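Can anyone check this?
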Amino acid sequence: MPLADSHAHLDMYSSDDLPQVLARAYAAGVHTILAIGIGDGPHQMHCALEIAEAQTSPELPAIYASAGIHPQEAANFTPENLAKLATLAADPRCIAIGEIGLDYYHVENPTPEIQHAAFIAQLNIAATTRKPILIHCRTSELATPQAKAKFGAADAWDDLLSLLVEHWQPHALPGIMHCFSGTVENARRSLDLGFYLSFAGNLTYPAAKSIREAAIFAPADRILVETDAPFLAPIPFRGQRNEPALVAHTAAALATLRGISADQLSAQTTANFHALFPSTLFN
C-alpha cells in the first residue's frame, strides 16, 4: 500500500540530489509528500511550494506544500512576512500552515512572549484561509542549563495547548502535531482539540518510551507517519541523512506497536492524510 510522508523538508536537498531522493521515495511506496515551507527563515518559506508546483511526473510522489514561520524565527513575524505567508496560503497546493508553534529548547530562541505573538498571528492566517496547521512543540526539559535558565518553569506543551484552546479551537479546524514527542496526556489533549498525531523516526529510538505509549494510545483514524527529512532517520539508519523513502521503516515500527500489518498501517495512515487534506485526492 502507498504511504504518505506528512512532513519532509525537501528544500534542504540540493537541486541535483532531489530527483534521486524523490525517485527512491516512489520506489519505496511513498506516493505523497507534504513539503514543509519554513526554509532557513521567512525569506525562504516559498521554496517548498515551488518544489510542489514543479513536480508533474506521474512516476514520482505527488508533492504538496505548507508555509509558515518556525518558532525559532518568531522574531521575524513582521507585517511583510505575514503578508507573504497569507499569499502563499491562498495557493491551492499550499495545504497547511506550518510548521508553527513553540520551542523552548535553544537558548538563542526568542522569548515565550514573542513566540506566542508570532504563533497567534499565524493561527489567524490559517483560520482565515481555512487551512490545517502543523505544530512544532519542543520544551526545555532536555535543554542546556542556559536554556533552562532563560525559559524557567515555562512548559511549551502547557503554553501551546492553552493557546490552541483560546485561539484555534473556536474555528473547529484540524491540524497535525508534527513529530509527536509528548506524553499520553499531551496526546489526549491534542486529540481532544481535533489534532492528528504524526510519528517520525524517533519513535524507533530506545529512549522514546513515552512516544511509543502515545502511538499505542492514539485512535487509528488520527495517526500519521513522517520523516522530518533530512532529520531523525529511523533505526537502523539513525545518524544518517533521512529521506522520505525511509518513512516505511517508521511505519513498520508503528504497525508492530499497534499489532497490525505494515499494509494495514500504510492504508490507514494514507487514508488519514487524505481525510485531513481532501484536496490531495484530486490533484
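Reply from J.R.: I decoded it. Strands lie at 3-8, 30-35, 62-67, 94-103, 133-138, 175-177, 195-199, 223-225.
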